[in-house]
Please model this.
Amino acid sequence: MDFEQRVRLLLEPSRRTPLLPRGEALDVAVTSLTDMAGVRAAMIGANTLVHIGLSSLEVRGDEVVEQEQLAAEVLAAAAKEAGLERLIFIGQIGADRASAYPSLRASAIAEDAFLRSGLAFVILRTSTLFGEGDLFTTGLAQAMAIAPLVFPIPGEGRMTLQPLWVEDLATAVTWLLDEGRMQDVVYDIGGPEYLNLREILQSIMRETGILRILVPLRPPYLRLIARLAEAMLPYTPLTHHWLDYLAVSRTTDLNALPAALGLAPARMEEHLGYLRNRHWAWEFLRRQRSRGA
Model:
């Protein structure tokens, strides 16, 4: 493959310093995603838009739906006006405008905006993503680190997940750009194995050295705990949105990524080394201070 393109990052204004990769040649534009003029100016000279959905495990309440809809509409219109040729949207498996869960509604609304854009597109609906600095495994590590001896899990922790390493997703996007395979298509992609939440938590405990007893708790009680934590703390790794995330199956065929792009994804246990040798309780406290500032 001969892939050499310059990357321009579009960042929203924030008091926090963005974690940008070191040693990489990057252009950075800073503007609100609802500022049409700013977004259009940031796209000058570009030919492809890659949009990572705004909906995350960290967003609180239904605001994610409105945020994602506004951002997607502005991005799609600006890309058209700026003369971009194609776009890639990173959405979520299970996206549905009629979903009871805000993140899935938001992802579906964004998809619709890009489908109507008139640009060549690929939509990658992903399963649960993991990697260094994520909100999934690192959030669970922080939550377990501050939990006293026991760690509550929804039900029996048997809900099925299909973790996809974030670097495999990055490779998939790179291949799409390199080969120009913009086919106006939607792919559901995931990792190479089905794991339940209990198995994932056990893997995290092995990597971090944090030992907790996993105690089943009825989801309504966990939601109450999450609501209280959200109300009382600047940052909490356990949100009601996270519980919603676990309430819906987010899996696809295990061969989906190899079949779509010829890429064999990595197993989760092979890439959890970033969880080692970290003081996760301290990481939790640090996040409190940074969010409360």
The longest helix spans residues 63-81.
